[in-house]
Amino acid sequence: MRYFFLIFGLTVVAVMLIAGKRGDISRKPPIEVFPDMDRMPKLRPQTANSFFADGMSSQLPVPGTVARGSPYQDIPANTGKEPGTTNWVINIPVPVTEQLLKRGQERYGIYCVVCHGPAGDGKGITGKYGMVAMANFHDPRIVKMPDGEMFTVITYGRNLMGPYGGQIDLQDRWAIIAYVRAIQRSRLAILDDVPADQREDLRRSMAPPAAQTNAPAAAQTNAPAAAAPKTP
């Protein structure tokens, strides 16, 4: 029994010499069986590093980087909100052009059509696999939704929809929203929404085709009358 206590005591001492005791301060990371990425490798400022071409660990930010909390970050095109508020922007804060709509149609076909369907009615192919709770863009709730809120939903997700901020660029998110609004307008638009100089052409294109003349009847009417049989 005494050997047991001796071995146990030596084991405790060995563990304390290696790992230290609780509360000790050390620059070395503790021994962790499952570190779970709690401590990531880092480079100390102004130290030499052979990884970069200039041999320094300190590097300039990647082009286009916006510092957190800077005035350039708090703009509607980045947040979908009015600057300095929590209010959604009502309309898309970027110019809506033909190129933007084409880009939105392309991105919609890649990221959105499988769930929301080509017509935006929520009848995508995923419905065949039991996913039936897809948003219908023609629902009055979504039609009235501010563009900034829709931008946030795409970025961070909502309900069953996951976030797409990491997959879809900022400009492409607004392009998708512009295309979704075009889809909605295809069902909800009225004649007054069409530019005045194009309304007459639209009326003519929507007019029912003229009644076609009954060709056999016309041929019978225009044909010479057959000679009546003579009475003997």
Number of helices: 9
Tell me, briefly, the overall form. elongated
Flag low-confidence runs.
217-229
Q: Characterize the biggest β-sheet.
A: none
What is the arithmetic mean of pLDDT?
82
Level-1 CATH class name of the domain at 77-188: Mainly Alpha
Tell me the β content: under 5%
The H-and-E topology, N to C, reads as HHHHHHHHH
Number of DSSP strand runs: 0
What is shown here, in short?
This protein is an all-alpha fold and 232 residues long. The chain contains 9 helices and no strands.
Task: Explain what the structure shows.
The protein contains nine helices and no strands. It is mainly alpha-helical and 232 residues long. It has a domain of 112 residues: Cytochrome c-like domain (Cytochrome Bc1 Complex, Chain D, domain 2), CATH 1.10.760. Helix 3 crosses helix 7. The relative contact order is 0.08.
